[in-house]
Design a protein that fits this description.
Strand content of chain A: under 5%
Largest sheet of chain C: 10 strands, mixed
Radius of gyration of chain A: 20 Å
CATH superfamily of chain A: MetI-like
Number of strands of chain C: 10
Largest sheet of chain A: none
CATH class of the largest domain in chain C: Alpha Beta
Mean pLDDT of chain A: 90
Order of helices and strands of chain C: HEHHEHEHEHHEHEHEHEEHHHE
Largest interface: A-C, 34 and 36 residues
Oligomer: heterotrimer
Helix content of chain C: 40-55%
Number of domains of chain C: 2
Number of domains of chain A: 1
CATH architecture of chain A: Orthogonal Bundle
Helix content of chain A: over 70%
Chains: A mainly alpha, B alpha/beta, C alpha/beta
Shape of chain A: globular
Structural class of chain C: alpha/beta
Strand content of chain C: 15-25%
Chain lengths: 217, 241, 283
Amino acid sequence: MNSVPAEVWSIFVLSLGVSGTAVMVSCAAGMPMGVWLGLHDFSGKSIVRALIFTGMAVPPVVVGLLLYLLLSRSGPLGSWEWLFTRRAMILAQVLLDLPFVVGITMTAIDAIPRELLFQLRSLGASSWQLRCTLLSEAEPGLLLAFATALGRSISEVGAVLIVGGNIGGHTRVMTTAIVLETSRGHFAMAVGLGAILLLVALLINFLVACLQGRIAQ
Amino acid sequence: MTMALYRLEGLRLARGTEFELTVDEMTVSSGETLCLAGPTGSGKTTLLRVLSGLQPIESGRVQFDGRIWCHGMASLAEIRTIALVPQRPILLSRSVRANLEYGLLLRRAASDERVDAMLTCLGLTKLAKQAANTLSGGQMQLVALGRALILAPRVLLLDEPTANLDPQCVALVEQVLNEYRRSRNTTLIWATHNLFQTRRVADRVALLLGGQIVEVASCEEFFDRPRDYRTADFVNGRMVY
Amino acid sequence: MRLSLAGAASLVWLIAIGCMEQFSPKPAAATITLATTTSTQDSGLLEMLCPMFRAQTGIDVKVIAVGTGQALELGRRGDADVLLTHARVAEEEFVRQGYGIVRVPVFQNDFVLLGPPDGALSLNPPKSLDDAFGRCAAENLPFVSRDDDSGTHHKEKELWQSISLEPTFANYLRSGSGMARTLRIADERRACTLTDRATWLALSGEFHLRVIFEGDPRLKNPYAAIVVKGDGQSPARVRAAHQFIEFLQKETTRQAIQEFGKDQYGEGLFFPDGGAPGAGQKP
């Protein structure tokens, strides 16, 4: 049997790795989408916006359930053999984070007046320079998107429990470990894990606040 | 006033069904100061946008420095010789200093000395580190002027650059622009509805009414011997809209 | 400054990824998925058995701990290779429907009826199981049901049926939760509830509840292992699953199961089937 600290450490690292990867993937995919949506006007944009905001409200267990049915060996993607693996957990969290990343990025870009773009071009900005300036103007929003995604990922339990299976050493992350320890009646361990989770969240948001403070200057 | 810097021919710009701006012919010479006079909504801002090389046009042609702009769009190199000072400037959410520096950074020509000189020139030194979004309207307009002037453009397009300024600042801006123009042979195209200012700064004046150029004349002729009756009405303050 | 913060964050992430791989179990010869009931995981039994199995065969067992109902469903969908459950009727139906290849009883323990120490049933102990359940219904005593299609829930329904009663009295509460939470609800609401002895021994320190009734043959709680038929695409996994069941029946394994928990609770939690005489029966 593993000693307790080693087990906690592995759960902690697994949480960070899975959620971190999910956030990176959803930012890499979602931010360009959000920027594009924020910059372009097209018919049906309000419908897209409504869909994205609905995506934010989808309960994680529902995502977990749908993903389970898809990834199950008798489901359409069963041949991937992703069920009860970290990949499935990352996929679930990416799906959960994506609406937040896209929506918040889109809103942040939308909030930049179109006239600013014209004025920047008149000052001699090439289209690439314009994009970079735009991103830096929207930086507080992008950071918010990042922090929200990370917060949602790392504290999420419903979806990863269903598609990850809470297998010790494989797919047991902090939240699912808390569920397990609670059901075992090991409240001290559960509370300890909860405290670590809280600490991580605090650290992330402190970091984001630091970054946003720098921007404000 | 040697060669024509701008030549506009048969320019038509529509918004909806109405023609927003129609210019049959217009030239701007290198080094001159052309004032665009006319009431609000007469098309001054639109004309400045066309001259900035960033406004697509449906028909007509704009020739700049001997080259015709395709659909009214200038190349990046050309745009970088033209600077626009908008009537309602939007500044980047950075410091005043960073806003002044922005155009230089785009050209990979960052220079602390030039920024310092511009801050001193416009009396903004004390505000250098302040966030741009905390400035007053007048201060913002000064920063907008500074971020364009610092680029030492060939052409400066000014859209009511002194509308929000107090009289001292107006005098300062006029003086600074005058110096710039003289030392660098900068072409100024200056939209204003202030007739006194027009008289003080213009070499030539163009009157716009309802998206049409009514008359282009030298400053003296425009004010003292207007050819068009509408110009006379405008100059004498009898025009009521 | 900003860049260095972002760099630090990325570094933490990369280190986490690196460590994550390191924390992965070493590659196994094969991996099978075991869907089981929460009681076997919560008691820690599988944490002892799986490493033993791996040491002997090199096969890694991924344990998904859910209710018996969900475990059977995982098997039906082919998402698990072996099941370890405790609902005989449902299991036999599972095999009969062709989802399982073989069902082997492996060990058992028993259920106990718990109640508040100062409740009506404690003060006047019931003579028999029928008496206990009958009085709950007749006197409208609080009773918490798992109501989650788990093995314990199946057993409870069986018991109500065996005394021809429908639990429709007002104080019959449906928790819809796992055993530990159900025990907590029973504790807080001063209610009776049915639980397996392993969970009870592991958690009894937490609660004020006490055993009201035990020992009826109907309270037996047999666990069985089932090899899932699967989709036929992975004969290696089916072989590994068979190996796991053979492992559970081995003498050394049975000994280990028999001894499990004795050091901690003073009595065994599970009793292997088909071993030495008397071992399969709760004394």
